[in-house]
Write a structure and sequence with these properties.
44% helix, single chain, 6 helices
Length: 174
């Protein structure tokens, strides 16, 4: 079942990357599929809840519109948030969450890695790389990704055991 979900996530990630790139945006795939690939070397060994994509802050409004045009509804912040609340959310938070109305899959659009903009601030070193077969994407450089995964887990007090496993298996690859 995890393998099938990961395969679906891979197809969705490919479609989202294509959508954003076709509209002149520069998406960076975070966590999830890239982490599964880097830490475990194969799809389906890590259960992923959502697809995380980092964009520049000036790309978020277009990405928001593109997702909403394709059956995604924003739930963090609420879709009916007025322009002022949406602008305040973007200043104070790192991402917005969307649910696909057909598949139920979750996408998080990030404009920075953490709510605190001083933690791993832009510009970030990235690379274009193949991932799990046909999914070529821009991703964080391995050392930046490792720092991100460590900071992400520590910010949540490693409340999910899989986050400790991620750090362990990424460290073993170094």
């Amino acid at each position: 079942e995890a393998r099938a979900r990961s395969a679906g996530a891979q197809l969705e990630a490919r479609a989202l990357i294509d959508l954003f790139e076709d509209n002149g945006l520069a998406p960076i795939l975070l966590k999830g599929l890239t982490l599964s690939h880097d830490a475990f070397g194969r799809i389906g060994w890590r259960n992923n809840y959502d697809t995380d994509i980092l964009l520049r802050p000036d790309e978020i409004l277009l990405a928001d519109r593109l997702l909403r045009e394709r059956n995604y509804s924003r739930f963090e912040p609420a879709e009916d948030a007025n322009d002022q609340k949406w602008a305040l959310w973007r200043r104070r938070r790192k991402d917005a969450a969307y649910r696909n109305q057909k598949s139920g899959s979750i996408v998080e659009l990030h404009w920075r890695l953490f709510d605190n903009p001083a933690i791993l601030p832009a510009p970030l070193r990235t690379r274009k790389a193949g991932l799990l077969g046909n999914l070529g994407c821009t991703r964080l450089e391995p050392d930046v990704n490792f720092a991100y995964i460590c900071c992400h887990g520590s910010q949540h007090a490693f409340s999910r055991l899989k986050w400790l496993a991620d750090v362990y298996f990424l460290a073993r690859k170094k």
